[in-house]
Every structure is written in C-alpha cells, then in structure tokens.
Amino acid sequence: MTVPVRTPAPPYYAVIFTSVRTEGDAGYGEAARRMLELAAGQPGFLGFESARQEIGISVSYWESLEAIAAWKAHAGHREAQARATDWYARFRVRVCRVEREYGF
After folding, report:
1. Is residue 3 very low, low, confident or very high in pLDDT (cuts 50, 70, 90)?
2. b/e map of 44-80 (b: 16 or more CB within 10 Å)?
3. What is the C-alpha to C-alpha distance for residues 90 and 62, in angstroms, rounded to an integer?
4. Residue 7, in any domain of the structure
5. What is the Cα–Cα distance from 103 to 40, expressed in whole angstroms?
6. Digit-coded pLDDT (tens) for 15-60
7. How many C-alpha atoms does 95 have within 13 Å on its Cβ side?
8. What is the pLDDT of residues 59-99, one digit of tens each?
9. Complete DSSP assignment for the chain
10. Which of 7, 38, 56, 68 has the most CB within a 10 Å radius?
C-alpha cells in the first residue's frame, strides 16, 4: 500500500515540481530513479512523493532552504537538469515553507 511520506513537525520545506513530459523515454526512467537515490542521500532530505497523469507532480521535502540549495547544486542533479529539454515540454519548480500539516 502506498502511503504519504511521514514528515517531521513543521516548519520544513517542500519543493513542488510540476511537469509535462515529452514523448518517449530518452533515459528518463533511469535518470529519475538515480535522482531519487542521490537526493535521499543528501543531508536534510525528508522524503519524496510523485504522481503522473497529464501533468506530473513531484514533491520533495527538506529540512531547510540550505539543504534545497545544496541539492540544486549537486553535480549529479546538475547533469540531469541539463537534460530537462530532453524529458519535459514544460515544467515549474515551486519552493514552499510548510507551516501546518494534518491528516490521518
């Protein structure tokens, strides 16, 4: 069963990546798996959730803005960023501070 990521008590940060894919794989599947593996090893990484239909929505959770900046600058991540036009017709990145969380 798939469940939402368990995050610590707020505040923490969410990076929301929304995208429309290009046709074909062009190595995307393997790169996406590798990026999650690398991100999970970064200091301050809290978790990841993703869903894809017409628009893909991926949310990564981080302890701090500094942790997000370090991930953005990571060499492996920068290599994947350079291939964005191979995989995405459009995308947006939003960085948000989570102030409140609730659920069951």
Report:
1. confident
2. bbbbeeeeeeeebebbbbbbeeebbebbeebeebeeb
3. 24
4. no
5. 24
6. 999 999 999 888 999 999 999 999 999 999 999 999 999 999 999 9
7. 10
8. 999 999 999 999 999 999 999 999 999 999 999 999 999 99
9. ---PPP-PSSPEEEEEEEEEEPSS-TTHHHHHHHHHHHHHTSTTEEEEEEEESSSEEEEEEES-HHHHHHHHH-HHHHHHHTTHHHHEEEEEEEEEEE------
10. 68
What are the tokens at 40? Answer: 């999970």
Count of alpha carbons within 13 angstroms of residue 52, beta-carbon side: 9
User: Residue 60's domain is classified under what CATH number?
Assistant: 3.30.70.100
The answer to whether residue 24 is domain-embedded is yes
CA atoms of 54 and 20, how far apart (whole Å): 7
**Location of structure tokens 């991540």:** 77
Structure tokens at 74: 């990571």
Q: Residue with structure tokens 């469940």?
A: 3
How many Cβ atoms from other residues are within 10 Å of residue 35's Cβ? 20
